[in-house]
Amino acid sequence: MRGSRGRGYLTRMGFRNIISNRTMSVASVLVLVSCLMLIGLVFLAAVNFNAMFRELSSHNVIRVFLVPGLSDYQREELGQRILRLDSVREVTYISSEEAYRRVMQNNADDFRLLEGADTNFLPPSFEVSPASLGDFDEAVTLLERFDPAIGSVRHFQSVAQQLGAVETAFMILGGAVVTVLLLVSLFIISSTVQTTMHSRQQEIKVMKSVGAAPAFIRWPFLVEGIALGLMGAAAALGVVFVVYLGLGSALEPLLGRLLHGFRPLPFGEQLPVILPMFVGLGVLTGGGGSMLSITRYLKEKVYEKSELDET
How many whole angstroms separate alpha carbon 183 and alpha carbon 175? Predict the structure, then answer.
């Protein structure tokens, strides 16, 4: 019972530290909210960027135009042979009528003069989707010399390469931003707890003089750091939710036009990842900052005491 009562007293002491140092506590929570908010928005941006990248990649197909006069059997056999290539994921046949319908649908204002024209003037083709973006070059090379029944091959190879470069740069930049923000949060929480310790030096000295173990002294500061981390995580989650909905509503019309109806991913789908991530980062940052400060503080005081004893 003594141990549980003592731990309860120390826990209450940790919460009292937050109240007694409310200015620094509020500052710590606000900084942590800012950092976690940016981390959350970077994460959501990365998730949406990946979804957009997949959407763009799905449209970044290789167009294989066929020579006129192929029979249905020849066309189907050619499509099956292309599909068996290791660098190819999917092959879709586009008839002359379907190609005409797509042109009219996507460029209605520019192609009004074609209304009533023969729908067979466009050549039939295959839409070939590479197995991955890295297989794009290989698939293009193979298809360009694959079969005499292929009249020409059209592709946007440079676009695919640029998309890959943008994705890599975004991931590197996002990782760097998250790392910097975590370090800033850790420093702020550590500074807050250290300020609390300096204001309670006398109490810590009394606890040490009566033989209190280091774990006993650390506990209230650990509770304080974790509590600050959880408060920051809860507030940041609410801010990210509001900001994400606002940005999503503002950008949805533009993204829909540029990316064939693409919409930002629903926030609820990302909540199972964001919630534990925020809680974990809050506890890790708050608790880690507290332990870093109290451990360093106790070592400094022990070192100072040993120097005084030697003199």
Answer: 13
Pairing of strands 125-130, 62-66: antiparallel
pLDDT > 90? residue 121: no
- Indicate whether 76 and 146 sit together in one domain: yes
- Look up the CATH number of the domain holding residue 137: 3.30.70.3040
The number of distinct structural domains making up the chain is 2
Query: In the listed set 110, 135, 155, which residue is the last one of a domain according to the structure?
Result: 155
Domain end call among 155, 190, 222: 155
297, 165: one domain: yes
pLDDT in tens, 182-236: 777 667 666 666 666 666 666 666 666 766 677 777 788 788 888 888 998 999 9
DSSP string over the chain: -HHHHHHHHHHHHHHHHHHHTHHHHHHHHHHHHHHHHHHHHHHHHHHHHHHHHHHHHHH-PEEEEEPTT--HHHHHHHHHHHHTSTTEEEEEEE-HHHHHHHHHHHTTTT-GGGTTS-TTSSPPEEEEEESSGGGHHHHHHHHHTS-TTEEEEE--HHHHHHHHHHHHHHHHHHHHHHHHHHHHHHHHHHHHHHHHHHHTHHHHHHHHHTT--HHHHHHHHHHHHHHHHHHHHHHHHHHHHHHHHHHHHHHHHHHHHHTTS--PPPHHHHHHHHHHHHHHHHHHHHHHHHHHHHHHHHHHHHHHHHHHHH-
**Whether 79 and 94 share a structural domain:** yes
- Looking at the fold, whether 239 and 175 belong to one and the same domain comes out as yes
Order of strands across the sheet that contains 88-94: 88-94, 125-130, 62-66, 150-154
Show the domain range for 106. 61-155
Q: Are residues 279 and 224 in the same domain?
A: yes
